[in-house]
Amino acid sequence: TYFVFLFKLTNGENDLCIGINTHGRYRDELESIIGMFVNAIPLRCQLDPHLSFQKIIKHVQDNMINCIKYSYFPLQHILNQHPNISNPVFLDTSFEFMSSMARDEKNEIMIGDSQFSLIPYSIKISEDEIMSKFDFILSFQHDLIRNELSCTINASLDLFKAETVCIIAQRLQAMLHQQFTSFDCTTNKPIYELSLALSNEQYIMQSMNNTQISFPSPLTCIHHEFVGQVMKHPQKLAVELDEQSLTYCELLYYVQVLSLTLLNEYHITPGEVVCQCVERSLSMVIGMMATEVVGGVYCPLSPRDPEHRLDALTRQTQSPLVLVHDLTTAKFAHDIVSPNIDSILNIKDVNSDMDLSCLSGVIVKSEEIAYTIFTSGSTGTPKAVQVQHKNFIDCMHSLAYINSFNKDDTVVQMARCSFDIHVQEILGTLLVGGTLIMLHPGGTIDFDYLSEALQNKQITYLHTVPSLLLRFFTTVEQNSKWHVLKYLRSVCSSGEPFSVPLIDLIVKIGIENCIIWNLYGPAETTIDCTAHRVNITNNTQSIPIGRSFCNYRCVIMNEYLQSSVSDQEGELFIGGVGVFAGYLGRDDLTSKALIIIDDEVFYRTGDLVDMDEHGLLHYRRRKDHQIKLHGQRIELGEIERCLLSITSISACVVMKWDDDHLIAYVQTYDIGDEQLRQYCQAHLPPHMIPSLFITLQKFPRNANGKIDRKLLPTPNVSNTTTLNSKESILTLSSLEERIHYIWLQILPSSLTRIPATVNFFAIGGHSLRFIELYYRYQSLFNFDAHALSVGLFLQQPTIRQHAELLQTLPSIDTQTTRCQTLHINQGKTFLN
Questions:
Q1: Where in this chain does the record put each Carrier domain (predicted)?
Q2: Is 770 exposed, middle or buried (0-12, 13-18, 19+ CB in 10 A)?
Q3: Contact indicator for 709, 655 with CB cutoff of 8 Å
Q4: pLDDT at position 827
Q5: Which of 11, 366, 688, 816 is a plausible cystine mate for 390, CB 3.0–4.6 Å?
Q6: What is the number of other CB atoms lying within 10 angstroms of the CB of residue 134?
Q7: Better pLDDT: 719 or 273
Q8: Closest CA to 49 of 746, 450, 561
Q9: Spatial CB neighbours of 816, under 8 Å, sequence gap ≥ 6
Q10: Can you tell me the distance from the alpha carbon of 73 to that of 371, in angstroms, rounded to the nearest whole number?
Q11: What CATH superfamily classification does 2-196 receive?
Q12: Average pLDDT in the 568-585 region?
């Protein structure tokens, strides 16, 4: 019973060891000798969770009999044979079982006609405290006359809270009740099916999933909801970018223009994937909604990705075309059809006599796919998550239901198109009838520009990852610009754990009347699926991810698909209206990701969480090697497979180091860091390129022949030894001095002087900082991606090389320009 209880209490640990005391009289002649022969020996038991309780009893009994054979062997000699065990924790616990004919209050028992007094392992200090040599004591007393079994648990107050010990006792009682009150339970069921859940915990779990809400809406698809908003308020501002703006009516007009082109000239049919590769612009919004209007499946491609990857992703979707605009026309090969949205809208002689009858003939149902978005894949190939119209609409209704955002909000678009959050920010805002504020490319990390937008556009809703939120709020606090945040009503954070320092900073800058939300959800459950309203006045070390949305269900299960109990880690399974339709063209991966629980489809997230006594979920960690870096979901296996495709590399391990860097350990003899970086730059997006490559001739391995990650050398992501070279005092050119100053602003504050030939990533740089650097260059030297792409700077990541690249520009005078991505004609103020 004790072994089975430990198996359940430790959340499935099946290799257990406890200390037991033996009488030590292993020879007959010792039986009559007076003295202390007791010896403590370890009893190790490896449980098979699929065995029944009765079979476990036989297994433990056989183990015990075999162990007793060696009871004469002193414990110290046993430990000497295992020098790797410096602190045998099984000696900190004690398990006692006493069976007797009678027992009185004086702790005396009768054995035959003789009376004995028990010598306790503990000394009583007060009514509630005792002194003991053991940290944890579980004692059973079996009264043979009364046929009663009593149990006592004593635990160290230094290690356990009193309420924790009480809960442990309740769980033991619940398990004993299952084992001994039902014959069927003890004989047939495997032990992993035994539950430690208490009745109040079962009630909390049931109430947590009591989320059914009806949202009355006769409309079925995203574009139908959008047209409904146009009919309600045609002259309301729909989207704005710097000096450009469109009302809902004007936006619908341009959406119809592009939709007709997609139907009549490119013959897009419902269900076809339409890829789109554009920078932040009005064209992005128009392209997304036009794709929905013609029944296409919107699939965003990041302009920051290398051309090799863009080509591979496009072919993976089998998309007949890729929508681009003026800044991305050169991204694709000539054999890929790439209509230019800007050209279509600016050059076409559009008028009010458009024939919209063909649009009304496009039939799209709510069960059809609205968009597909790529996430990192452990097999080396990105996975395309397919989300239905009904998934997205229900998720937006849930967010509006908790008032995370609503029709009166002015929403700033922060997320890159590689994040599914951008779909909520753009289409979700238009779906509920809000106003969308677009930022020019790089605007989210240009904090002066972002601050100006928040104040001048009176932004009320902001959603971004915690790391970026922390950096932005820090800048606001340092520059005493709290006033730029005065219009914020709702700040949402997701993609990474919400940190306590972020709460402290929010308190410090004093955002008045602003609700802070910690949201959680993988792309496979449609953007977000749980929410927690953060109480910034509470002193806490862990910010919950909260409770499930309306019409979602969250279940925490162990590896045997049995419900976990409070404060016990388990994998989070999510069911309900947001569960995705599957991975595009990968039924094998879909079948692994989706599981039926109680006749309902659930997505297995791979995230380990636990539930507190209030029914709030807390994210703990991943059960695999998937990570989040600056909010971006990354399968480390995808990076490893990319590197392993290089023939001279025989082994590779990629790890996340601190919160900002990826480190790649490579087993090779004849390839250098720069070659590895250039190869990754040609095949991976910037956020997946390791900051540091460490080459080894041979990896350390454990006794099983596997790579021992703990013995890999510690990386130095801010290599100060490099900065001590004589070159650091050499004179820089005027342009190099300007670049040097920018680097010092972006890189860690400990740097004071950077040599002109030092790699950006070798001194604390990472992908997010590099993108910030690139956009800083664009702002200061007035060029776009046509002139110099981010890839060129990545391939030549030193101050001197960047100066040489910038020298190729016609003029490098510092200028400030506004982003003009689309010359919108005079807006139409009528509805067709």
A1: 730-810
A2: buried
A3: yes
A4: 47
A5: 366
A6: 18
A7: 273
A8: 561
A9: 779, 782
A10: 68
A11: Nonribosomal peptide synthetase, condensation domain (3.30.559.30)
A12: 92
pLDDT of 124 above 70: no
Q: Which two tokens stand for residue 312?
A: 């591979």
Q: What whole-number distance in Å separates Cα of residue 137 and Cα of residue 127?
A: 17
Q: How far apart are CA 175 and CA 163, in angstroms?
A: 18
593 — phi, psi (to 5°)?
Answer: -85, -25
Using CA atoms, how far apart are residues 372 and 394, in angstroms rounded to an integer?
17
**Residue bearing tokens 């054979």:** 69
**Which residues share a beta bridge with 237?**
247
Q: Please give the C-alpha separations between residue 465 and each of 492, 520, 628, 728, 749, in angstroms, as whole numbers.
A: 8, 11, 10, 36, 22
To the nearest 5 percent, what fractions of the chain are helix, strand and coil?
A: 35, 25, 40
pLDDT at residue number 184: 56
CATH homologous superfamily, domain 720-807: ACP-like (1.10.1200.10)
CA distances 478 to 287, 453, 475, 505, 509, Å, are 39, 18, 5, 11, 10
Q: Which residue has the tokens 């239905």?
A: 388
Q: pLDDT tens digit string along 73-112?
A: 777 777 787 777 666 666 666 667 776 655 555 556 555 5
> pLDDT tens, 205-260?
777 777 888 876 656 899 999 999 999 999 999 999 998 999 999 999 999 999 99
Structure tokens at 295: 């029944």
| Pair of tokens at residue 94 | 């004690």
Q: Where are the domains of the chain?
A: 2-196, 222-617, 626-711, 720-807
Within 10 angstroms of residue 35's Cβ, the number of other Cβ atoms is 8
* Domain 222-617 listed as CATH 3.40.50.12780: yes
CA distance 176 to 170: 10
pLDDT in tens, 544-568: 999 999 999 999 988 878 777 777 7
